[in-house]
Amino acid sequence: MKPTKTWAERRKETDSDQNVVASVEFVIRTELHGSVETDFVHSILGRITAEPEGRGKEDAGHIGASLVQFGEALNHGISAERLGDGISGDISEYWEHLFDVETGYPEEIQNEFEVVDLNLLIVDYVAIDPEFRGLRIAESAIHRTIDIFGTGCGLVACKPWPLQFTPSVADDQQALKRLALPNVSKGEAIRKLRSYWSRLGFWPLGDTGIYGLSLSQRGCAASSQDRGKGLQ
């Protein structure tokens, strides 16, 4: 029987490859007969695959996102209060900090991020298998998600939080083993993750723990002096 290679051995082979073709396949979940409010909140799951040179397509990770169509809801005559009442779970935190029932995005966010549209794209998480880390696949998957689902959005938001410290993963030994995440303290893991998202152009919104990327400013250079402190 041919021995099964460890992920470390496979990673060494991947590192030696000159070409790794990666792709992401998206599935969007929405209710067919749900409440009016949930018609404008859509769950997005992306399956990331990679095909190292000389090997077939392999699972490389996942990306999760949520599209909240604030603008479309208001255009359909749903009041901001009613829409807010229909939002629950993790998205409710974004609603609380990023949306004003009278002005849409609060004035300070509009001014700082030059927000044009009301819709919001939330990147919930990105998880890349150990073998395929360091190849910028996660970064590419994030940008591709924004390219496809960011149309009509004024802001892309995320809350950098290490997967190993989320309840669903922290209590799952198989998931922890599969992800092989760094053995560092929670504070250090959060600091590194926030630094990673900052390099992608996301900036902190005060002390909310939420980071935002303006689509109207996407691709524009912003100095750390201008944005390093985030909104106060």
Q: Overview of this structure, please?
A:
With 232 residues, the protein is an alpha+beta fold. It has one domain (7-227). The protein contains ten helices and seven strands. The protein has helices at residues 7-16, 70-75, 80-85, 90-98, 107-113, 137-149, 167-170, 173-179, 186-199, 224-227, and strands at residues 20-29, 41-52, 58-68, 119-128, 153-158, 203-204, 211-214. Strands 1-2-3-4-5-7-6 form a seven-stranded mixed β-sheet. Strand 6 (203-204) and strand 7 form a beta hairpin. It is globular.
List its traits.
24% strand, single chain, disordered N terminus, alpha+beta, 10 helices, 232 residues
Proportion of beta-strand residues: 15-25%
What's the pLDDT, averaged over the residues? 79
Run of helices and strands: HEEEHHHHEHEHHHEEH
Note the main sheet.
7 strands, mixed
Q: Gyration radius, to the nearest Å?
A: 19 Å
As a percent range, the share of helical residues equals 25-40%
What is the count of distinct domains?
A: 1
The order of strands across the largest sheet is 1-2-3-4-5-7-6
Low-pLDDT segments, ≥5 res: 1-18, 221-232
Q: Got a strand count?
A: 7
Shape: globular
The number of helices is 10
Query: What is the CA–CA distance across the termini?
Result: 61 Å
- What class would the helix/strand composition place it in? alpha+beta
